[in-house]
Amino acid sequence: MSERLPVWFIPHGGGPCFFMDPPVGAPNAWTKMEAYLRGLLKGLKERPRAILIVSGHWLEPRATFGASKAPPLIYDYQGFPRHTYELKFPAPGDPALARRGRELLEKAGISAGEDAERGYDHGVFIPLLLVEPHADIPVVQLSLENSLDPARHLAIGRALEPLREEGVLIVGSGMSFHNLHNFYRADPRVLQLAEKFDAFLTDAVAQDEEARARALTKWEEAPGARVSQPHEDHLLPLMVAAGAAGSDAGARDFHDHVFGAPISGFRFG
Questions:
Q1: Residue 150 contacts residue 239 (beta carbons within 8 Å)
Q2: pLDDT value at position 25?
Q3: CA-to-CA distance for 136 and 92, rounded, in angstroms?
Q4: What predicted TM-score, i.e. pTM, was given to this entire model?
Q5: 60 vs 185: which has the higher pLDDT
C-alpha cells in the first residue's frame, strides 16, 4: 500500500435490518445507515488487501482471531423472515492475517488465540454485505475479551496499528446506542440522555491520542453512558478502533436518528 489506511467504527444496524421490508411507520429508519455503509470504501485511493473486523457479538476470555479459510455464517438473530437466514457472504478468510494479528498482540504482551472453525456473525456479514457486496476482500474477525475492559481493548487496538501500513482495513462493528429495551419506545428521558452520550463520544474521538484514551477509558462516567450502553459489548469495538488510530485524528462521519435514538459512526485517519 502506498498510504496508511484509516480505521472505522461503524454501526451495524439491528439484526438483518437492511435486507427486510422497512418497519411500519418508519420507512426510512435504516436508509441513511445503509447508504453510509455502501459508500464506506469509495473514498479510499487503494482497495484494502484484507479487512480485520471486531464485532460486539463475539466475546472470548482472550482476544481471538478467526482463522478459517472459508468462514461460514452465524445467523445469530431470531424471529426474522426466512430469507434473512439464507443471506450469503462468501468472503474468504485469511489465516496468515490471523496469525500476524496474534503475533502482534503477543509481542505487546497481550495473550491471543486463533479459532480455525468459527464463522462470521451478523455484526460482520450484515454490514459487510453493504460495504463489500462482491465479498472478494479477505475478512478476519477478531473477538472482544469478555472482561470488556476499555483500557485493555484500547491496548489491543494499539498493538494492531501496524496492520494499517500493510493494507489491512481495521473496522469496529457495533452501535453507539445499544439499549434494546428502549430502542423502539422513544422514551424522551432516555433519548435526552442518549444525545448527551453521543455528544461525549463525538468529543472524545476528536481529542489527541492521550486525551482520547483517557476519555474512552472512563466512558461509564459520561452523561447517559449506561442508558445508552446497558451492556458495553457494542461499544468496545470503538475502543479497538481508537487504539488502532494511534496519533491520527478522529471525527464523526455518520450521524442519524433511528426511532429517535442518535446513532453515530466514527473515522480515524
A1: yes
A2: 85
A3: 7
A4: 0.97
A5: 60
